[in-house]
Amino acid sequence: MRRRKKPDVGVLLDRCLAAFVEAGTLDVSLDQLGRRAGSSKRMLVHYFGGRENIEEQAIRRLENRLREQFAPEAFPPGATAQTVMSALWDRTTAPQSRGVLLLVMDLSKRAWSGSKRAKRFYEEQQRLWMELLMRFLPDRATVEEVLQTFQGAVLAFLITGDREPGRRAIVRVLKNQEKVRSRA
Amino acid sequence: MRRRKKPDVGVLLDRCLAAFVEAGTLDVSLDQLGRRAGSSKRMLVHYFGGRENIEEQAIRRLENRLREQFAPEAFPPGATAQTVMSALWDRTTAPQSRGVLLLVMDLSKRAWSGSKRAKRFYEEQQRLWMELLMRFLPDRATVEEVLQTFQGAVLAFLITGDREPGRRAIVRVLKNQEKVRSRA
DNA sequence: CTCTTTGTGTACCACATGGTACATTACGAC
DNA sequence: GTCGTAATGTACCATGTGGTACACAAAGAG
Q1: 3-state secondary structure at position A1
Q2: How far is the C-alpha of A169 from the C-alpha of B145, rounded, in Å?
């Protein structure tokens, strides 16, 4: 039944995701995507049935990748919140993470602009981080607090390129929280 | 020297900014902009000399508007940080502020995507808020911390539409900070 | 009045986008 | 080998964009 070498759709998808990451946004034309995937617009539409599906499947793949990267198992259970958050900050702001970070923020923008899919992505990521941080922080409210600071720090970091203010802010929030807690 | 009724460029600009705010983004076509301003693409290009200038001047006008809205003089000097931040949060997340908020975030996105102008806008806003908060918070590091939490809270609010988590996070940061400080 | 200058509409251009029609190619089944 | 079906390229389309050429209108200067 097999004609020709029938390209591997999975590989195409990987390359599309790579193109999105490289561009730091989903705003990559089918032509560029095709070239980047060693194929053509024509074939991408043929195999995926339209741009929407490419985006959908690329997002799904990104979700999977992030899920395994931030799995709670990846962090020692005895670690302090400070250690974990610091490691997360380092990893998140590392140069090689920039593309993914930009892509995630692009999805955030789509979410606040009304995209249902992007909103789902955001909620999933939120859930993931909550689950992770709940293992190192005392209660839900603290996790919420730290998470929002982290997000604000990411935003500032992306614009200024300076990792330090964000790190300082996160460390401070944790320190204060800890001090208050230890006093009680 | 004056021919015809020569339209007021200032009014046109105001209406363009209104269109941007209404759309919550600078991504409004010249055609839409023209219609919204009671004019036409033709005339907008004629008077402003191109899209870039319209955006530039609209941003400048937005900056002015925000500058007077968040002038330190607008807040009682004796107020507590909690009061001020709570008021700022209310004002920022009020339904009628949504358009401006979205537009500001659109500019943030442009900033992290590389736009020089948008980056300048971001830095100016940052400066403004720093200046304002320095009047109610003890030191620069605390202001930085609160500011980043605030930004993260705004992001989450825009996506979820829920004002409460953000408010909780901001209140917590301030409370902890205050407790730690009072203990020292 | 006429003449010049400027405001304005219409129709257009060039370009990029997502997507498709149609022809052609290549390969496996037989 | 032949044949049919799937893979692919090319050329195209419709739409939306920023911007412009050109013609015309209107109003002040003289």
Answers
A1: coil
A2: 5
pTM confidence score: 0.95
d(CA A111, CA A113): 5
Q: What is the distance in angstroms measured between the alpha-carbon CA of A2 and the sugar C1' of C26?
A: 12
For residue A3, is pLDDT > 80? Answer: no
Please name the fold of domain A1-69: Arc Repressor Mutant, subunit A (1.10.10)
**What is the full per-residue pLDDT of chain B (184 aa) written as tens digits?**
455 567 789 999 999 999 999 999 999 999 999 999 999 999 999 999 999 999 999 999 999 999 999 988 888 888 899 999 999 999 999 999 999 999 999 999 999 999 999 999 999 999 999 999 999 999 999 999 999 999 999 999 999 999 999 999 999 999 999 888 887 6
Chain D bases closer than 7 angstroms to a protein Cβ: 4-11, 16-21, 26-29
Residues spanned by CATH 1.10.10.60 within chain B? 1-62
Q: Which residues of A touch B150 (CB under 8 A)?
A: 152
User: Chain C bases under 7 Å from protein CB?
Assistant: 5-11, 16-21, 26-29
What residue spans in chain A does CATH classification 1.10.10.60 cover? 1-69
* CATH class of the structural domain B1-62: mainly alpha
Place of tokens 């209406």: B15
Q: Does B2 touch chain A (CB under 8 A)?
A: no
Instruction: Work out the burial of residue B88: count CB atoms within 10 Å of its CB; fewer than 13 is exposed, 13-18 middle, 19 or more buried.
Output: middle
- Asked if B4 CB < 7 A from strand D, the reply is yes
Per-residue pLDDT at A105: 98
A148: tokens are: 């929002």
Contact between B149 and A173 using a beta-carbon 8 Å cutoff: yes
Q: Select the residue of B105, B152, B169 nearest A112 (Cβ to Cβ).
A: B105
Asked whether the beta carbons of A106 and A125 are under 8 A apart, the reply is: no
Q: Is B28 on the interface with A (CB under 8 A)?
A: no
